[in-house]
Amino acid sequence: MKKIKLLQQITEQGVVAVLRGETPEEVVEMAEQAIEGGIKVIEVTMTVPFALRAIEDLAKRYSSTSSDPSQFAIIGVGTALDPETARAAILSGAEFVVGPSLNPATVTLCNRYRIPIMPGCMTIQEIQTALELGVDIVKLFPGNLFSPSMIKAIKGPLPQANIMPTGGVSLSNLGEWIKAGAIAVGIGSDLTADAVKSGDYSLVARKASQYIEAYKAAKA
Fold first, then answer.
1. Domains in the chain, start-ordered, CATH in brackets?
2. How far is it, in rounded angstroms, from Cα 123 to Cα 142?
3. What pLDDT digit, counting tens, does each position of 149-167 carry?
């Protein structure tokens, strides 16, 4: 049941912060600010040096089962290329797994441990294969290669597919993606670029708040 609840929470939140950085400490700071700004689903990518340390630190502090809003967050791992990486992240506290591509072995492992897995797909064939493997949410990646109308095209033959565009989603087009049928969106560098450039990580919280407001407006 935990997997079902996690999927419900992720889709209810609707915005996933995809975090990259130079150190685990930097990513933890980004995550804290994103959570403060209202984005409660955090994806720590495995391109971060010592990424598992960041996942473990965040998983100890935040929980998807917390009744305290300040301590509620769903911590996951991104850029999981293989099942070994996914399993290590799960043992470090990751509650969901995201990959840049469809790796059947990774999907099998996540299904075994009842962990939501969101593989990156670009084609109808990849999405169909993902569904056949038991994937609940497909990451449309890279999203900047498509327009929101792509979701309607996908849902023509595959109306049962739940699509989460990632890459190229911004404040200016988030509403279009949601209204087109995206079940959630992944936000990457646009969330953190200003903060990294200026060294002021409170800008992540400010931008996160703007994304949450844009998401709520689109859903309304």
1. 2-210 (3.20.20.70)
2. 11
3. 999 999 999 999 999 999 9
33-51 pLDDT, tens digit each: 999 999 999 999 999 999 9
- CA angle 107–131–89, rounded 5-degree value: 20
Task: Enter the pTM of the model.
Answer: 0.96
8 Å CB contact between 99 and 120: yes
